[in-house]
Amino acid sequence: MIRVFEPKIYYKDKLAVWSAVSKKNISGSSIEISKFEKSLAQYFNREYAVAVSNGSVALDIAFQNLDLKEDDEVILPAFTIISCLAAVIRSGAKPIFCDVESDSWNMSIDNIKKVYSPKTKAILMVHTYGLTADVGNILKFCEENNIILIEDSSEAHGQEFEGMKCGTFGLMSTLSFYANKHITSGEGGAVLTNDKEVYQNIIQMKNLDFNNNQRFQHENFYWNYRLGSLQAALGRSSINSIEKTIYTKIKKAKVYDELLSDYSDLIEIPLRQKDNVRNHYWVYGILLKEGISRDGLIDYLYKKNIETRPFFWPLNKQEAYQKVFNQVHECPNSERLGRQGLYIPIGGHVSINQQKQIIKEIIDGISFLTTA
């Protein structure tokens, strides 16, 4: 089976974890955690970083810090992972979906303006699949309208906008370190900020509201969201490999672009660049033309020992959302992506010969599905 992704674990990564084990630094409060947080803050050009147990937790903590009310609205893209929606709902605010652009697969200021209202209190800016959201215009819009900006950079480690790293923007940025991310600790996440008060709140929120002066006296019913030190050691080590990881993916994406160049009537490939932002191909997504069964192709490829993943199913169509809100939102680009998109294996574990095999099987599969 050619896996859709496979993390690259270098000898230095194993050594970092072994060093933590040998020093018995395994808890969520050891020196390894603070080292990881300092490395993250430095890499992402933030004053503070707080490591937590996963990226969904990072989103939860970010929104719990905003003290949103029932009538407050939060704009987020319909085309993203459900963690984003869940965090907004758990904050007590009302989620408002905007569509994404048909070419970049990311939210733009035009999408946002279509759903903005005087009740909009925050925007969750998500970077998806390798390109960025419309960062400059969204930042300006938030500043002009006194809107809080939260940035989800879970899929954008190492990506940049106008020389500034994703993870730099907004009141808070969130990260995931799941195994398929450019910085990975297997599981894990972080919240980044430049605001000292927010930082101090997050420290309390991730650790049961412990107070060092009165250790077992608590003012709030917070959760335990700590990250383990072995994960932190792996994550800190993987920061040093990020440029190599991105370089490899860009090189592999170029091969796919060339192999698919004669099939534009069947498949749309991801943009290499938009608005001076170079795609760093967190994944290599393809979009099938209408009439071709995406799910049928996924099944076909799996039988050929090629693993793929469907694109995100749009949030406005999620059954969990409809159960709570029972509202209809039209986000045609997000819905088309969710219906016709999939991503295919990319990374150092995939050879050029395997890439050729993957594309051959994709074209053969499309032929089979459209003539059967």
3D structure, described in words:
- This protein is α/β, with parallel strands linked by helices.
- It has 2 domains: 11-239, 3-Layer(aba) Sandwich (Aspartate Aminotransferase, domain 2); 242-371, Aspartate Aminotransferase, domain 1, CATH 3.90.1150.10.
- Helix content is 39%, strand content 16%.
- It is built from 13 helices and 15 strands.
- The chain has helices at residues 11-22, 31-43, 55-64, 82-90, 109-115, 135-144, 196-205, 229-239, 242-259, 294-303, 319-325, 332-340, 352-371; strands at residues 48-52, 73-77, 94-98, 120-126, 148-152, 160-161, 164-165, 172-176, 189-193, 267-268, 273-274, 277-278, 284-288, 309-310, 341-344.
- The strands form 4 sheets. A 7-stranded mixed β-sheet has the order 1-9-8-5-4-2-3, with helices on both faces.
- Helix 4 (82-90) links the parallel strand 2 and strand 3.
- Helix 2 (31-43) runs parallel beside helix 8, helix 9 packs across helix 13 (352-371) and helix 10 packs across helix 13 (352-371).
- It starts with 10 loop residues before the first helix and ends with a helix.
- The model has no long low-confidence stretch (mean pLDDT 96).
